Amino acid sequence: MPPPSERLQALVGRGVAEIDTPALVVDLDAMHRNVARMAEFARKHGVRWRPHAKMHKSAELARLMVEAGAIGCCVQKTAEAEAMAAGGVHDIYISNEVVAPHKLARVAVLAHQLAAEGGRLAIAVDSIEGIRRLAQAMANAHAAIDVFVEIDVGQNRCGVPPGPEAVTLAKAVAEHAALRFAGLQAYHGRAQHLRGAQERRDTIAVVIEDVVHTRKLIEAEGIAVELVTGAGSGTMVCEAASGVYGELQAGSFLFMDADYAANERDPAQPQFEHALFVKTQVIGVHKDRAICDAGHKSHAIDSGLPKVLAVDPDSELEYGNGGDEHGILRPFRGGHRLPAIGRFLWLIPGHCDPTVNLHDALVGVRGGLRSGTVERIIRVDARGALT
Amino acid sequence: MPPPSERLQALVGRGVAEIDTPALVVDLDAMHRNVARMAEFARKHGVRWRPHAKMHKSAELARLMVEAGAIGCCVQKTAEAEAMAAGGVHDIYISNEVVAPHKLARVAVLAHQLAAEGGRLAIAVDSIEGIRRLAQAMANAHAAIDVFVEIDVGQNRCGVPPGPEAVTLAKAVAEHAALRFAGLQAYHGRAQHLRGAQERRDTIAVVIEDVVHTRKLIEAEGIAVELVTGAGSGTMVCEAASGVYGELQAGSFLFMDADYAANERDPAQPQFEHALFVKTQVIGVHKDRAICDAGHKSHAIDSGLPKVLAVDPDSELEYGNGGDEHGILRPFRGGHRLPAIGRFLWLIPGHCDPTVNLHDALVGVRGGLRSGTVERIIRVDARGALT
Questions:
Q1: What is the rounded average pLDDT of the residues A267-281?
Q2: How confident is the model at residue A1 (pLDDT cuts 50, 70, 90)?
Q3: Residue B292: what pLDDT?
Q4: Cα–Cα distance measured from residue A246 to residue B99, given in angstroms and rounded to the nearest whole number
Q5: What is the mean pLDDT of residues B295-300?
Q6: CA separation, residue A84 to residues A45, A52, A53, A77, B45 (Å)
Q7: Residue B375: predicted pLDDT
Q8: Stretch 319-358 of chain A: residues touching chain B, C-beta under 8 Å
Q9: CA angle, B254 as apex, B252 and B255 as ends, to 5°?
């Protein structure tokens, strides 16, 4: 469903000032520069990039990156894969475990469909039971799928430990005719947010040792490990330079967020720009505070509150938690003025992924946030696609 | 748009076990008991109840409570008011400030429409500028609206301080023919979550003094204060017994959440039950942890992580943050067993309002979570209704 116009309040061709609030706005100029930098980075390092669509959840944006050189996209959920396929993406990797028979039947249908389009579907596994169920579903549907064995390289979430358990799983995958062992999934989510560049390099150095060791053990069994896939926007310079990772899954570089901006930039990292903003409006001004109309139904707060984009130094504002529907703005650093009622402000979300998931659409703007124009409305196709 | 069936994976008439995960499930038996207790409570205290629809965002649930005796509903956003009106609710109060001319034009259209249906629309104000804009929009549309002056009784968010500033606003409202001064909005959001029952009573006692004082000042100007409206599920026993509040806005009682359950129950408070759950499923089991498929794209974490509903004492589990798409479950208290792959679990969300806002639909179940049946799918009409 296109979002009801009365909810979105943004019209293509009209000025930025007319976008009603709150709205999730993409600075398309900044976004395109981020895409070009990422494409150039991957080309320079000779690695594939498969940006994670769990972040933007939009088939239009996934296709845009394929046109810029991406191999396809990653997703976390079966329903996200379906949304991306329906929107014209043909090479999709579910970088997560799926075990429900209902969902695996859908995975099989999708694998069939993508193969028929000349594309393909891949998925991750981390258990014998998961492999058994996946193989059963694929056999039932006479479908085939690429399978990555996930190893836990420090996230302590999904994946088996590097080493013999991964070999056991690789061998189990190789036993099933419908499953094609495609390599290793090795993603360290927490490492993305380590603040120091050297700290991230040190952490990923250990990850790479674990990956190399595991790969050697699997190959000693006569099973080729064609690809190691992983990496996020925080550590991708390490994986790209490793000679071990063949594919980068970074997604957040497209929009950047306040949390990634808080990282010390690695000198090897392209300079990505903030491209995602919540446009909000002041609805009240009181003695010591201004109140805006964006709360945590407009932006996620799991990685901290949003930052207020400073328009000029004497009006810098700090965003305080005002609950689901409000933000509480107070003068900050050199700031000493409160904005007037009706004044528009721009928030940089703490975490882009769950922020995008709150919105049915992104308002794409050209020409900057001050005086730009709405170029297009980008559907968040997989918003709420949880299953 | 009805959510695509492949995303929702719940069929009316089928058993609870068949609901695919993650899904937001309402225990309809518990919910109806909560409604009956609230209706009885309001009747006993001779107060109106106008449950807040910002919580459930569903016109069906708003109507259900009107049938049980509620006067109508509250909302926070113009788009929520539009969704409730479109779904057959005729008496709506926007308990928040609206200042954007675009939105005020929509408010005027809605006021007209509801009046034509024999219903009405009300709104809150907390500034002269807001009153001026509201009056202008209503005059432009030849519409009229009920107006509550919001006083800040301790939340430090919206509202003017109790006392003379509120009188100034009441007089300003009374000057405009299109605006009907209806009383005071006095809601203390933070007080809802003070853990001790006595602490909440003490806090609301001060609120009530402020309200009474402000009311006296306004009435001394010859302006009647017909109604004081406010109260949430945490403090409503205090406002209900005050003789000052004529209307309760509590909304969370319908579903309850882990945060409200953490309050010490006031003996005067009806015993509300948890009625909202995220059904999730174990997708991986590792040495020290099980991984489930619900993360903070399935439930809000602003008021803490969800609790795992304990099925039996030796399998009690604690939910740990696994990011956007995962939960990390570890044995808890007496628990010493990890659940198997595919096992279903039920999470009690920390905060119901922003959790509901993540979902397009609620799966309504009769007969309990163990062996009940899906009775109906409840649309979250105002999901994402931000403007």
A1: 97
A2: very low
A3: 98
A4: 53
A5: 97
A6: 27, 11, 8, 11, 54
A7: 96
A8: 321-326, 328, 341-342, 353-354, 357-358
A9: 75
Does A192 reach chain B within 8 Å, measured CB to CB?
A: no
Average pLDDT, chain B: 95
| Interchain CB distance below 8 Å, B127 and A341 | yes
**Same domain, yes or no, for B65 and B214?**
yes
Nearest C-alpha neighbor of B218 from the set B132, B157, B160: B160
Give residue-wise pLDDT tens across range A138-157: 999 999 999 999 999 999 99
pLDDT of residue B1: 36
Same domain, B223 and B292: no
The answer on A133 and A212 residing in a single domain is: yes
Residue of A82, A341, A385 with shortest CB distance to B129: A341
User: Containing domain of residue A358, as a range?
Assistant: 5-25+272-379
A23 touches chain B (CB under 8 A): yes
Domain boundary among B255, B282, B297: B255
ipTM of the complex: 0.95
Facing B127 at nearest CB: one of A21, A160, A284: A284
Quote the pTM value.
0.96
Q: How many domains does the structure of chain B reveal?
A: 2
User: Mapped to the 3 state alphabet, what secondary structure does A29-51 carry?
Assistant: HHHHHHHHHHHHHHHHHCCEECC
Within-domain flag for A261: no
Amino acid identity for residue B311 in this structure: V
Q: Note whether B245 and B324 are same-domain residues.
A: no
Residue A5 forms contact with B (CB below 8 Å): no
Residue B387 inside a domain? The answer is no
Asked if A223 and A286 sit in the same domain, the reply is: no
Give the model confidence (pLDDT) of B212-258 as tens digits: 999 999 999 999 999 999 999 999 999 999 999 999 999 999 999 99
Q: What is the mean pLDDT of chain A?
A: 95
Taking each helix axis from N to C terminus, what angle separates B164-175 and B128-140, rounded to the nearest 10 degrees? 20
* CATH classification of the domain holding A315: 2.40.37.20
* A189 vs B103, B126, B323: nearest CB: B323
Do residue A222 and residue A339 come from a single domain?
no
CA distances from A287 to B159, B218, B316 (A): 11, 22, 49
Q: Looking at residue A8, what is its pLDDT?
A: 61
Residue B116's SS3 state is: helix
Query: Is the minimum CB–CB distance between A136 and chain B shorter than 8 Å?
Result: no
Amino acid, res. B113 = Q
Q: Does B86 touch chain A (CB under 8 A)?
A: no
Considering the domain architecture, whether residues A39 and A62 belong to the same structural domain is answered as yes
pLDDT above 50 (res B5): no
Residue A262 lies in a domain: no
Would you say residue B239 lies in a domain?
yes
Report the CATH number that the domain containing residue A94 is assigned in CATH: 3.20.20.10
Alpha-carbon distance of A233 to A41, in angstroms, equals 12
Chain B, nearest residue to A382 by Cα: B7
B306 inside 8 A of chain A by CB: no
End position of a domain, from candidates A255, A282, A310: A255
User: B158 vs A281: CB contact, 8 Å cut-off?
Assistant: no
B87 and B216 fall within a common domain: yes
pLDDT level of residue B7 (50, 70, 90 thresholds): low
Q: Is the dihedral of CA A333, A335, A336, A340 positive or negative?
A: negative
E-state strands within chain B: 23-27, 48-49, 73-75, 91-94, 120-125, 145-150, 179-185, 227-230, 247-248, 276-286, 289-292, 307-308, 317-321, 327-331, 344-348, 361-366, 373-379
Pick from B273, B321, B330: which is nearest to B300 by CA? Answer: B321
CA A167 to chain centre: 29
